[in-house]
Amino acid sequence: MERDSSDDDDDRETLIHQNDTKHDDHHLPSSDHHPSTFDIQHSPSSRQRLRFVFNKRFLFAIFLPLFIVLVYFSAGIRSLFSENVSSFTFDSVTDRMRESELRALSLLKQQQSQLFALWNQSFYNNTDTTPFFRDAKSALLNQISINKQIQQVLLSPHQNSNLSENGDTIGSNFGLETCRKADSVVANKRTIEWKPKSDKFLFAICLSGQMSNHLICLEKHMFFAALLGRVLVIPSYKVDYQFSKVLDIEHINDCLGRKVVVSFEEFAEMRKNHVNIDRFLCYFSSPQPCYIDDEHIKKLKHQLGVSVGKIENAWKEDIKKPSKKTVQDVEAKFKTDDDVIAIGDVFFANVEQEWVVQPGGPIAHKCKTLIEPSKIIMITAQRFVQTFLGSNFIALHFRRHGFLKFCNAKKPSCFYPIPQAADCITRVIERTNAPVIYLSTDAAESETGLLQSLVVMNGKTVPLVQRPPRNSAEKWDALLYRHQVEDDAQVEAMLDKTICALSNVFIGASGSTFTEDILRLRKDWRLASVCDEYLCQGEEPNFIAGDE
């Protein structure tokens, strides 16, 4: 999850100070000098000769600087100093060091031009996604970044001179185009029409993980409902999250032009409060049928008044090793004449994944995406961006809480020391030239404070912006207060997602479904960038703690 920045300074051909000349102090004889015993007395004639010699030296001292100035302007010594510095021999260590710096910068510029040429010829606009190509692309961008960092180090003592003779800066693109929008056009896109029978329902059940997992589960339930020709029943807030606070449910129906989803309350009213699940056909059989526990069954019965029929497995399927399934597999096992069916939690289901990951999803509709934030959250996010971030910003999902143990169980680990994370973030900044970063995180202030101090570009700290506490003088979040959802944790989480999705470039946390939902929104909204990546993508942490 390489870089260029217009804020950098290019190498200056003026590294060598053109006015760096050394002057010797000349002490002239004093007119008050008294002869000592060892002084040689001169005759009047000899004094006249001395006075003549002295006058010649005085005239020479006056006219020599004038002569140098005339030659400077007539012969173009400035260009000699700047362009042909290698032809001069410097006596001082300082001058020799400056000459070496200029030669090093010249070589770095040559290397930089060749790296940019290689990028533009071989990598830019190349859609190859093989691991080798991805690694080679990452390595090339890393070398471009290192090249620029070396130039900055060499130029750091000479920051008073901001431009080279040709006016270029280190941050200029040199024809390197990196962070363009990703191509969202899908050739031969495969979709299915969702035309449900009005009296046939699929009862959605989502239990695994937190809100982001439930949204992914809900999206997959929509695909199943479309395949089976059923209306999808959104879970009640009494047994699940209150989806109506974060999602625009009617937006889904509007996009399809028909009633395809209903709330549990609507469903109960349609069924005249005779709410029952006629058949439980479990997609997953292990670790337990339908991946549903007895506690949830009790909630369905006692809190919602839902009568539950017999629970049976459609096939043998384990959430730890989900197998690939096709449309035909699903239709063969789950099509039934029962009015209301449930198939359990399908978060881990792997059905026609190529369809599911298409921009806009696998269902035919007239909108960009079906599952998106409510209008209140969308407008609030846009107002926040207009107030604090502007059109060019990076968004960073920096997951930390509970992530250390989770990541270290993976190979390779996805939990990075903060200095290493800061280096990775800085490389993205170089590519995007973004002046600010939106930070979505659960990290402690001690971690975010250290991260902020280390994210530096051209000697300047790049601000990490988080949503501030409520301030009545600020109006960007007024809608949340007007609708009394300002302190809702799920609303705040969806607001964070939406702000991140609106960024120019997004840096996510590998293994996080929060990140995956942001990437889905960016893809569906056609906002994804070729620079979107996971934090320190392709790298391993430079230090990993041992197991417990």
Automatic annotation (TrEMBL):
Annotated GO biological process: fucose metabolic process
Biased amino acid composition, Basic and acidic residues: 13-36
Subcellular location: Endoplasmic reticulum; Membrane
Claim: Cell division is one of the keywords in the record: no
Principal location: endoplasmic reticulum
Bias-annotated ranges (Acidic residues): 1-12
Transmembrane segments: 58-81
GO cellular component terms given for this protein: endoplasmic reticulum; membrane
Annotated region described as Disordered, given as residue ranges: 1-42
Pathway in which the depicted protein is active: Protein modification; protein glycosylation
Keyword flag Disulfide bond: no
Highest rank taxon of the organism: Eukaryota
Keywords tagged on the record: Carbohydrate metabolism, Endoplasmic reticulum, Fucose metabolism, Glycoprotein, Glycosyltransferase, Membrane, Transferase, Transmembrane, Transmembrane helix
Any GO MF annotation of the entry: peptide-O-fucosyltransferase activity
UniProt membrane topology term: Single-pass membrane protein
Family, as annotated: Belongs to the glycosyltransferase GT106 family.
This protein's name: GDP-fucose protein O-fucosyltransferase 2
Organism: Dipteronia sinensis
